[in-house]
């Protein structure tokens, strides 16, 4: 009887292993890398850091900074009242205190290429750039932009805003999940600053063009495909290590428990599930936005299955993918609304008035109006007494008249994704 049980378990494990290898082969056939070595070689090759590399200047700036999160309060007062005398005084003091690192950060953002010295072959133990210091760099650039806006120093304000967008672009190119999440936060801060800049300063067509190019450059790299691929390679490395009988500090499972889990088929079942979900989410990032929105419920169902079933390893390795995809969608749609706003401003410059409707800006100022994947229609445009807002309906697919998530006090619904300009 014992022989039959062992034979059954052997056949079961063999079938599951074959199934898992088929999924791995399908991933490779689709053109994706599956090892950390190939991830490094294809997506983030190791190079010597020279003065042609933005990381050269960022690294210099980081050595001049402390590790304190001393910028959170500053971000809040910028958000609440950026042009009060007290805020302006605080911004000036902060910049003066960090004058030397700011100079290096600014030099870095003038470069078109950034490659930090990151060794991804270490997997989850990979040492990444100090993101606290990167966020401090962002706040320094934002403080600089706000001070220039207050003084009506248009060129300097535009340069600082473009530098913020460049900082976000550099982070989108790092193939691990935390980096684009930082990039999205940077992008959000840059676009909020751009809203203020457009509202308070008189721009000309050249200024519009500079901002447009910076946004379009960001859009070219604005994808989670590379980041999810990096995350998948790290997960595969963990599964392969466990499969070879090696330890993995990231997984809290003893050797005896893991052995039993393997011979009863649970391990192979989890490995295949992990590969399937990560492959599905990478494919999702390549879809047109409307299709991406419609496919999100399937991803959420798969993740719900993991959280409510006995997928012990997957639940430890798979991040909040659905929340990440939604956050990236918000960032993409905010950027598209910002590009529409720049076209509206071009119209305003030539016609000394706002367009009555977005269709008035095509084809002269914009080739076409992008579709809002949540409403299925064009982006909404709402003129107001002292400005306007352009917006996507957001995840609840309802018209909340351009109310932002902040204005809705971060509720689960009843908010849109706007780019709002107040003159």
Structural descriptors:
single chain, 423 residues, 3-stranded antiparallel beta sheet, 16 helices, 62% helix
Ordered list of secondary-structure elements with their pairings:
Blueprint: H1 2-29, H2 36-43, H3 54-63, H4 72-80, H5 85-97, H6 99-109, H7 131-150, H8 154-172, H9 178-200, H10 205-221, H11 225-243, H12 255-263, H13 266-285, H14 289-308, H15 312-317, H16 321-351, E1 380-384, E2 387-392, E3 417-422
Antiparallel strand pairs: 1-2, 2-3
Description:
With 423 residues, the protein is mostly helical. It folds into 3 domains: 1-31 and 251-319, no CATH class; 40-226, no CATH class; 326-422, no CATH class. 62% of the residues lie in helices and 4% in strands. It contains 16 helices and 3 strands. Helix 7 runs parallel beside helix 9 (178-200) and helix 14 packs antiparallel against helix 16 (321-351). The longest helix is centred in the C-terminal third of the chain and has 31 residues, at 321-351. It is globular, with a radius of gyration of 24 Å. The model is unreliable at 4-16 (pLDDT under 50).
